[in-house]
Amino acid sequence: MNLVLLYPEDLVAPDRACLTGRRLLHVREVHRAKVGEDLVVGLLNGNMGKGRVLRLDDGLLDLALSLDQAPPAKLPLTLVVALPRPKVLNRVVAAAASLGTARIVLLNAWKVEKAYWSSPKLQPESLRQQLFLGLEQARDTVLPELRLARLFRPFVEDELPGLLGGGTGLLAHPGTDAAPSSLLMPLTLAIGPEGGWIEAEVQSLVNAGMRPLDLGPRILRTETALAALVGKFF
Predict the structure, then answer these.
(1) What ranges do the domains of the chain cover?
(2) What is the DSSP letter of 156?
(3) Mean pLDDT of 101-114
(4) Is the peptide bond before 120 cis (omega within 30 degrees of 0)?
(5) Where are the alpha helices (H) located in 78-209, listed in sequence order?
(6) Is 77-233 the same fold as 4-69?
(7) Span 77-233: which CATH code?
(8) Which CATH architecture has domain 4-69?
(9) Would you say 167 and 186 are in contact if contact means Cβ atoms under 8 Å apart?
């Protein structure tokens, strides 16, 4: 936790916050903060700054706040990722948030197991918790937009062209083209399931305005492909 993320309900006054639970435990056991010390804090979807520790014990963390810094700007990036295995999903969502992704779409695909869509990790509270962890890691406060697209064709045909917004759409798929020499922003990146996109899906994505992109001879895990793509273009 590089930033203590505050929620609106933590505020007891405009310049005071009281925390319990996971964040209190982290500040005590990892930060090992003491009364009088300053922590890096930020209000969810608001400013960042410092929180001076006024009280810290088993039951409460009391902070005096000075929130005078804007959070870092989001990348002009939409990530469209075929829903990964539940145990991978947490890592992907947290990583996307920490990298500054503006929008995340979890998409169905032919090689996505149907059982993945019934995982408890897809519950809104579970997804929000992973987004919060990503923001804390990156010292950011602004949540990316996150949505679930359970139907491939309606999303790709009806919504994806509008999301491209006149920018560039790139579809990670082995054996296709190299990266373009120049990009128009915003950028939309699509990453397939573990078994890859099927050809019909590739064609549908291309018809919607995406350009196939080969990441090289190695087949990468979803979270590795995400980091490689963002590092390549930003």
Answers:
(1) 4-69, 77-233
(2) I
(3) 97
(4) no
(5) 86-98, 124-138, 152-154, 160-164, 199-207
(6) no
(7) 3.40.1280.10
(8) Beta Barrel (2.40)
(9) yes
